Amino acid sequence: MAWTALGLLALLCVFVAVLTHGPSGWGLQDRWSLRWNMKVKDFSAVLDQMQMTPSSSDGSAAFMMITAPFRAMLADQKFLDDWAFLNFSRWVVFTMHLGFLMPLFTLAYASAGIGAERESRTLIWLLTRPLPRWAIYLAKFLGGLPWCLGASVGGFAVLCLAGGDLGRRAFVTYWPAIVAGTIGFSALFHLIGATLRRPAVVGLVYIFFFETVVANLPGSLKQLSLNYYTRSMLYNEAEAMLSVARPDALDVYAPVSSLTAWGAILGATLVFTLLGMWLFGRQEPKDEL
Question: What is the pTM of this model?
């Protein structure tokens, strides 16, 4: 699983680097419009030509009024910078890292804490140590958490590095939310790895069904999703960073405050850890010999 996540990280880094340093980049000006068959930055010249035609001379005032917002957007460098940052955030941070890389890295390392012991048939030996089972569970979680954080935050740093200046800006803005989300997912996947057979399969179903679907629902069901609280933190951090544009393009329905998101994620981490300690203490290992 970890090698799969690393391979996906390498592919995504190449894609981000090619797009970042390509002719269009992440900005608005050089985007190609298939409808008008031209770059967005050329719209202003076309609008000027349309204004000068005889057919539009009688309605020049109305024409100027209609096209004024678009002209203002293309002339406002702060808006263009914010738009490029939002575009990078939506596709790289929200879709690539939060949607795929972070859950895969945490699943690979967190579920292996006890799940790998079961698969290698060494769980019986582990349980013979002079420690209560709840302490073994907690020690495995705390021992694996730095690996999860290192892989998730490190992978995010590499992905942002491939994004150039926008990527560095995104890393400085979003790394606290990435840390919070990684902690919550690590606690959940450690619980799954310790209590269920085939935790990788269960974790993948959870990532690509529950988190992907539920976190984007407009109702209150999304409040059961760790992804929702992480996305809320990302949204709030983007809103604090932007100077002109609004982060509405990030598609977060009714985000909660960062303080509420931190409380929910840390509370879920505590609940998952205590539940795992209790279940692992009562669980009788079978088919280990």
Answer: 0.84
- Find the length of the chain: 289
Residue labelled with tokens 């690539």: 96
Residue pair 239/246 in contact (Cβ under 8 Å)? The answer is yes
**CA atoms of 244 and 54, how far apart (whole Å):** 36
pLDDT per position as a tens digit, 68-109: 555 556 666 787 888 889 999 999 999 999 989 999 999 999
Which amino acid is located at 289 in the chain?
L
Position of tokens 């491939």? 162
Angle between helices 164-195 and 112-119 (to 10 degrees): 50
What is d(CA 233, CA 258) in angstroms, rounded to the nearest whole number? 5
Q: Does residue 166 contact residue 88 with C-beta atoms inside 8 Å? A: yes
Contact 235, 252 (CB under 8 A): yes
The one-letter amino acid at 45: A
Per-residue pLDDT, averaged over 240-268, amounts to 87
- Domain boundaries along the sequence of the chain: 2-23+78-282, 32-75
User: Reduced to 3 DSSP states, what percent helix, strand and coil does the chain have, rounded to the nearest 5?
Assistant: 80, 0, 20
Measured CA to CA, the distance from residue 36 to residue 190 in angstroms comes to 51
Hey, what are 212's tokens?
Answer: 């992907």
Whether 63 contacts 50, CB under 8 Å: yes
State the maximum Cα–Cα separation within the chain, in Å, rounded to a whole number.
92
Q: How far apart are CA 253 and CA 248, in angstroms?
A: 9
Does the CA dihedral 142-146-149-152 come out positive or negative?
Answer: negative
What residue has token string 């933190």? 233
